[in-house]
Amino acid sequence: MARHLITSAIPYINGIKHLGNLVGSQLPADLYARYLRDRGHEVLFLCATDEHGTPAEIAAQKAGKPVAEYCEEMHAVQAEIAEGFGLSFDHFGRSSSDRNKALTQHFAARLDAAGLIREVSERQMYSNADGRFLPDRYIEGTCPNCGFESARGDQCDNCTKQLDPVDLIDPRSTISGSTDLEMRETKHLYLRQSAMKDELSDWIDRQADWPVLTTSIARKWLHDGDGLQDRGITRDLDWGVPVQKGDQPWPGMEGKVFYVWFDAPIEYIASAQEWVDAGKGDDWERWWRTDRGADDVRYTQFMGKDNVPFHTLGFPVTILGSGEPWKLVDYIKSFNYLNYDGGQFSTSRGRGVFQDQALEILPADYWRWWLLSRAPESGDSEFTWEGFQDGVNKDLADVLGNFVSRVTKFCRSKFGETVPEGGEWGAREHALAEDLTRRVAAYARHMDAIEVRKAAAELRGIWVAGNEYLQAAAPWATFKTDPEIAAMQVRLGLNLIRLYAALSEPFIPFAARAMAGAMRTDLGWPDDVTGALGALPPGHAFTVPEVLFAKITDEQRADWAARFAGTRA
Ligand SMILES: Nc1ncnc2c1ncn2[C@@H]1O[C@H](COP(=O)(O)OP(=O)(O)OP(=O)(O)O)[C@@H](O)[C@H]1O
Ligand SMILES: [Zn+2]
Fold first, then answer.
1. Is position 412 within any domain?
2. Within a domain: residue 83?
3. Which residue has the CA at smallest separation from atom 25 of ligand 1?
4. Which of 263, 335, 392, 541 is most open to solvent, judged by the fewest CB atoms within 10 Å of its CB?
5. Residue 156 is labelled as binding a ligand
6. In which compartments does the protein localize (predicted)?
C-alpha cells in the first residue's frame, strides 16, 4: 500500500463551470483517486474553489452581492455539483479561508527572507472610466506573440504565452470597454523566478515520464526568449490575501493583496489543513511535510494546459524557495482543451454545456464515461451532440447495459434470481478468463500511468469480451439441449457483472454501485481474475437491476443541440 496525495486544479469561483473544466482537471483526478482507493492505497484527494481576484469581484457586483457572500454561495453551488458528478474529494476547500491567508503570508515572508522577492515601482494601466487600476484579466487586446485579438492581460488563451498588460496591442478595459487607459505609478512585489531558473530547469529535465504537454510548456517558459521572467505577485485590489510578511505588516504594501495565482496553489496545502479543521482527518502534515512523514507520499496534480506554467514554475518556486521541507509534486498530468461544437467552451461568454445543465438532462455516469473516454490527452478534443449520442449509446447502452440486462433477465426466466448451479467450464470459458486476465493487467497499467483514453478503451474491450462470449456461448440455445452447461454460462455471466462493477467503478461509480447492489456483492478489485469469475457461488441471490443506461434518442439529441446552441444568459 502506498500513500497518494492528489489535487485537481481549483475551479475559479465566478460561475458554474462547463464540461471542459470538468474533464480538464477534476474528473480525471477523481478517476485516479477512485482507482487508487479501489486498489487499496491510502489517498488524500483535495480540491477547492479559487476565490480571489477581480473576476470574482465583478461577478459579485453583477449578482448584486458583497463579494464574500457571493463566493460563499457559489462555493456551495460548486460543491453540490461536484457531489452530483461523484467527485470524491476528501475535502473541497476555499482559497479565501483563514488557513490559506496565513499560509500565503507565511510563504511570502519565507521567500522574502530568502531574497526571492523584490520590490518594483512600476507603471500600470489605470482606467479613468472605471476609476481603478486594471489588473491582468480586465485588460484585453491583441497578443504580441500570435495576433489573437482577445488576449488577456496575464495570458493569451490562444498560444498560452504569459503576458503583462503593457505587452498588449490596442488594450481596452473589459469592464467598461473603455480605451481611456493611462499608465500610473504603483509599487509591487515580484517573485524572483529567474533566480531559480537553473534549479527548475534541472528538475523538469529529471521528469522523463511526465506528459510531453507538461514538460514542453514548462520548457517553453523556462527557455523561450529571454528565459524565465520574474512575476508580479501583488495587485491593487480589495479582495484577496492582504500583503503581509507572516503576521507582520509589509511597509509600503498597505492596501494591496497577493495576486490570485500566488495564493491559489498554496490552497492545496491549506485545503489539507481545512480537512483537519473540519474533523475529517487528524494529521495534514504527514501529507505535506517531508519532515513529518510526507517523504513516502506520491503527489500527483491534474490540470488543463493553461495552468501548467503556474504549477511547473510558479508554485515550485514558492515551495523550493521557502527553504522548508514541503512536499513537491511528483507528477503533473495536464490536458489539452475540450472544445464545444466547433468553438471554445467559455464561462464568461456562456458558451457550451454547463455542469448543472448536464446533470439536469442525464445522470452523471453518462457524462463521466463520455468525457473521460474522449479526454483531450494527445490533442484538443471536441464535444458534439452526435459524438456524445453515439458514444453513450454504443459503449454504455449497447455493450455494458445490454450485457447486464441479457444475463440477469435470462437467468431470472430460466433459473430464478439466484446464481444457478451445475456444469463445468470448458475451453471457451478458460480462454475468456485468460483473455480477461491479460486485459485487466493492461487496464491497470494504463490507470497506473494515468493514460485515461487507453484505460477507457481497455475497459470497453473488457465489456466487449463479455458480450462476445455471451453471443458465442448462447445460453438461450444451449439451454434447450444442455441446461447444465447453460447454467454454467449464466453463472459466469453473473460473475462478469460483478467483475465489471469493480473494474468500472472509477469511471462510472453510480452504475458500478447499482450493478454490485443488484449482484448483492461488494466492489473488491479482482487481483485474481479467474478466481473472481467464480466469486458468486451457486445459490447466491441477486436481483435484476433497473435499466442501467437508456439510449439517447435522435429527438433528445436534436432538442439538446438546439437548447445549447446559443449562449447562457
Ligand atoms: N475547454 C477546456 N478543456 C479542458 N480543460 C479546461 C478547459 N477550460 C478550462 N480548463 C481547465 O479547467 C480547470 C479549471 O479552470 P478555471 O475554473 O480556472 O476556468 P478557466 O481556465 O478560467 O476557463 P473558463 O474561463 O472557460 O471557465 C483548469 O485546470 C483549466 O485548465
Ligand atoms: Zn497569443
1. yes
2. no
3. 347
4. 541
5. yes
6. Cytoplasm
